[in-house]
């Protein structure tokens, strides 16, 4: 969905470095999510936010932190990257005010490689 | 943990044939959704079926839901090369409505 953007699209970094992945949306949605996808697996939820003041851990939050700077921006940080965090990372949004309120809209993904 | 498990993991069919993929899940749900992912890209929502619905159609897509068996199927009729992608089911349950995704079916349409 072009209304959900992620930066950077690709990133190679070294073990121990701090990395921030950013997500912005112009859909006006209140809910935002971060997922990671490993080869051959589905998406695993890292963190989710139902509004600016609401941050919740997902299934695999260890080693990650997030910040919801505004309704439109949700960033994911890896404080000290490790090789097994090499994965494809997706941001998604949803709108709690619609009938299909948990239909999610995904960004294009960030491919992160930790050496 | 994965709530949904898709079956088969991979499927190859000739263009024009119908493709069927299945999803089983473990706990009670409020709704079930199907998403498509083209290689390395973000997921795109295809269709949502609520727990009180048994069948739903959208274009060439037909989704069924059997809550007694905790399973769903996605049928794509008259397949096209552009349907080549991975397909994921996702379930929403509980009060907070976050989604839990399955492991996906990789569909290849042979021209």
Q: Quick summary of this structure?
A:
With 115 residues, chain A is mainly beta. Helix content of chain A is 0%, strand content 55%.
Written overview of the protein:
In chain A, 0% of the residues lie in helices and 55% in strands. By secondary structure, chain A is mainly beta. The termini of chain A are far apart. The model of chain A has no long low-confidence stretch (mean pLDDT 93). In chain B, strands 2, 4, 5, 9, 10 and 11 form a six-stranded mixed sheet that branches. A five-stranded antiparallel sheet of chain B has the order 1-3-8-7-6, with no helix packed on it. Chain B is globular. Chain B starts with a strand and ends with a strand. Classes of the chains: A mainly beta (115), B mainly beta (111). At the A-B interface, strand 5, strand 9 and strand 10 of A face strand 5, strand 9 and strand 10 of B.
Layout: helices, strands, pairs:
The complex is a heterodimer of chains A (115) and B (111).
Chain A: E1 4-7, E2 10-13, E3 19-25, E4 31-37, E5 43-51, E6 54-57, E7 64-70, E8 73-78, E9 87-94, E10 105-106, E11 110-114
Parallel strand pairs in A: 2-11
Antiparallel strand pairs in A: 1-3, 3-8, 4-5, 4-9, 5-6, 7-8, 9-10, 9-11
Chain B: E1 5-7, E2 10-14, E3 19-24, E4 31-37, E5 43-50, E6 55-58, E7 61-66, E8 71-76, E9 85-92, E10 99-101, E11 105-110
Parallel strand pairs in B: 2-11
Antiparallel strand pairs in B: 1-3, 3-8, 4-5, 4-9, 6-7, 7-8, 9-10, 9-11
């Amino acid at each position: 969905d072009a209304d959900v953007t992620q930066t950077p699209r690709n990133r190679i970094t070294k073990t121990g470095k701090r990395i921030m992945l950013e997500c912005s949306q112009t859909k006006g949605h209140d809910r935002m999510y971060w997922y990671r996808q490993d080869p051959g697996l589905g998406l695993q939820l890292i963190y989710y936010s139902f509004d600016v003041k609401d941050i919740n851990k997902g299934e695999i939050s260890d080693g990650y932190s997030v910040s919801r700077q505004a309704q439109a921006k949700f960033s994911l940080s890896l404080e000290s990257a490790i090789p097994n965090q090499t994965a494809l990372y997706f941001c998604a949004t949803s709108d709690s005010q619609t009938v299909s309120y948990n239909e999610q809209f995904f960004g294009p993904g960030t491919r992160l490689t930790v050496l | 943990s994965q709530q949904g498990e898709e079956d088969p993991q991979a499927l190859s069919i000739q263009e024009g044939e119908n493709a069927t993929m299945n999803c089983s899940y473990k706990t009670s749900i409020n709704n079930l959704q199907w998403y498509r992912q083209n290689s390395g890209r973000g997921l795109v929502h295809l269709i949502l079926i609520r727990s009180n619905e048994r069948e739903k159609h959208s274009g060439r897509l037909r989704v069924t839901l059997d809550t007694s068996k905790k399973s769903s199927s996605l049928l794509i009729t008259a397949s096209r090369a552009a349907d080549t992608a991975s397909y994921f089911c996702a379930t929403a349950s509980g009060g907070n409505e976050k989604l839990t995704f399955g492991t996906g079916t990789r569909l290849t349409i042979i021209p």
